[in-house]
Structures are given as C-alpha cells and as structure tokens.
Amino acid sequence: MRIPRSTQLHPDHGFIHKFWRCQNREFLLKAASTKDLYMKCTEYALKHMSVSSKVKLHTYCLMDNHAHMQMSYDKDSSYLSSFMRVSHARFGQSFNKIFSRSDKVANERPKTPLIENSEHCMRVHFYIEANPIRANMVSLEKLKFYKYSSYKFFAHGIKDSWSKLLTLPEWYVTLGKTPRSRQSKYRKLFLKYLTSELFGSKWMYAKYIGSPMWQDQMISTAKDLLDQVLLKTNCLDTT
C-alpha cells in the first residue's frame, strides 16, 4: 500500500525538500533542453488552477539524473500533491513524446521530507545548490555559471528564465536590507557550509529534516495518522 503523503506532512502548511531520480538512474536530464522542459512543466504546475498559487518554489538544482527543489505549501498539503501530479505528468508525457518512448521517467514518486524551521530550510537550501560542487562538476568560483541552479540568483543576483519562479525564503530576506547585502551575507554563509561536516552528509534524505526531538514527534504523529488510514481502509474493505 502506498503511504498517503498527507500522513507525513502538516495538514495546513509546511516547507519540504522535493527530490527524485530518473528511472534506473539513467541520465535522462542531461540535455539542457530536457532540463528546460522540466522547469517549464514546473512553471505550468505552479500556475495551474488546481494549485491555486498555494505552492511556492524557493530553490532548485537540476542534475543529469536527478532533481532537487525546496518548496512550501499553504492552506492544505493537497495543493502540493496537485502540483506534483500536474508537473510530473506533463513532464513525463512530453519527454516520452519527444523521445518516442513509453517507459517511466522518474524512478518513483518524488520524496518530500518535511522541514522543521528556517534554520533547517537554510541548510537544505545550501545542500541543494551545492550539488554541482559535490558532484565535482564545477568549482565554487564557477557555480554562478551553472544554469540550472538558483545559486546564481541568491549569491549574485543573476536573473534568468527561471529565477522569476522563485519566492524569497523568509530567512534569506533577514540577511540584509538590500539585495546586495543579502547576496554578500549569503555567499559567506554558503562558503561556511561548504567547509562544514554538513556538506558531505546525507541528513537531508531522512523522512523529516529537523532536530532529533522534532523528528521523533513527527514520526509518532505520522504513525498515528497512518494507523487511522489503515483502519478506515480495512473497515471499507469489510463492508
């Protein structure tokens, strides 16, 4: 049984780290045109009537065989589910049509671990944008030229076709009173992250991203909700 995403997320609002890999870890996103297609599908879904502007994109980085985004949802977690259904269905259909194929594009549905607070949102943000450095694709000095990462916008104010989709995180706004001061502070914090133990760790792949106590609390709550869903399903099956 597929576990409902609603049992793992706050019902009314939250921040999540969305990531997924290509089928069989193939490099299906390697071409720039394919990355552009994925971002176009993201833009389409953000504006879709079923999403109703309740989902925001805060950072992103597309690699050759996987993608990362940090997003937030408001009012109801179902808006996030709608966003992913629309964006990934449109991308999968378009990709298969272009390449005359019928197989899955994503290995499985996107992971969306819930993030506790602004401090952890900032850490996830750094992790996402540092992916090209971690993969030895580019150096820090050249990261601002990597097209499919939001780093160039937050660190240097460079705008492109996709920066218009970004909503500034609250923690980023507090870094300074002007765009230039925020960018300067961001570069210093990003560099500090690159030299910390967090740079090479896998902590952001947990079901919940936050303090240990908060994670335990969320796991317990999710288990209770899942038990309720299973009980309801079993009751329906026996009627």
Description:
With 239 residues, this protein is an alpha+beta fold. The protein has a single domain (10-220), classed as Alpha-Beta Plaits (2-Layer Sandwich). The chain is 44% helix and 12% strand. It has eight helices and five strands; from the N terminus they run E-H-E-E-H-E-H-H-H-H-H-E-H. The chain has helices at residues 32-46, 78-98, 118-129, 131-134, 151-156, 170-173, 179-194, 212-237; strands spanning 14-21, 55-62, 66-73, 114-115, 208-209. It has a five-stranded mixed beta sheet, with helices on both faces. Strand 2 (55-62) and strand 3 (66-73) form a beta hairpin. Helix 1 (32-46) packs antiparallel against helix 2. The longest helix is centred in the last third of the chain and has 26 residues, at 212-237.
The total strand number stands at 5
Radius of gyration: 18 Å
How much strand content do the residues show?
A: 5-15%
Shape: globular
What is the CATH superfamily? Answer: Transposase IS200-like
Low-confidence parts lasting 5 or more residues at pLDDT below 50?
A: none
Helix content: 40-55%
